[in-house]
User: Fold this.
Amino acid sequence: MVRKVDNFAIQGVSIAPGEVKRIDIQLGQLYTQTPMTMPIQVHRGRQSGPILLVSAAIHGDELNGVEIVRRLLKHRSLKHIKGTLIAVPIVNVHGFINQSRYLPDGRDLNRSFPGSERGSLAGRLAYLFMQDIVALATHAIDLHTGARHRTNLPQVRVDLAQATVLPLAKAFGAPVILDSNLRDGSLREAAVKLGVPTLLYEAGEALRFDEVAIRAGVQGILRVMRQLGMIRGRASSLHKALPDSLIARSSYWVRAPQGGIFRCAVTLGQKIDKHQTLIGELADPLGDQAEKIYASVSGVVIGLLELPLVHEGEALCHIASFSEMDQAVADIEQFTEQMYAQIEQQG
Ligand SMILES: [Zn+2]
Assistant:
């Protein structure tokens, strides 16, 4: 259901049909008295339609989404859209400035939704974002990367109990859809409670740009917009031969049985046979004691630790299980090949 909005305004700034406007959302001030703002851009089509929110850097050190939003805003398809796109490249501006996942009060913004007007710094920012932005949207896509020193294969996370999100998740076209429960305090949970179907896109690593993750993100959002009827365009212009995303029903973290230096033996997208495929070796600095690591489930690697220094219990490798395992591996391979071919052709 598309809400009809005649007078579309954010923090008192109205955006007329056919208008593109940058708005600096007022966030109060720093202790230097410097005013703090969150830059956003709104594209309102002449025709009314869905109102899609695309947000990034709720975790302030997750940069791929910031670049995805920048490229999306330059895309020619946005010239004639139906409905409205609200693009927010940096939600956690404080964390972004500090190159940190968290807010200066140490809180995780994505555990602070829906927030409250008189709450903590994180709670207030979450509240303002919900009231001023999320409440206007009919659909949302929230962009993330792996945490620091962790990289993720491009994947869309949705709660499949919400029937409305599956067609959007499929339209996005990431190689993997992960059925993931709503996390308490996350933007996704708060938005879904408001009746806004929300996709979470996870790809690449914190504090890095990952070209495959960025391209797959831009194209995924455009495909969702096409699915929602916001943009037109031939199917061929956005990957005609893209395989259907396979849905992982469960996922599992291989954790370090002891502290040590980890030499990883697997790559993203690799197939893992339980108790057989070597995940890597965990050793002491002199190499006297080395332990070979295996997984207790079969699946495909969708996330990896990049830093070789690990404490006991640390997550080394994220494995997703599929009912059609070989198909999943083949699809991921096809996706990766297509993305690299595209990078080579287009530069
Ligand atoms: Zn994140």
Notes: The first strand starts at residue 8 and ends at 10.
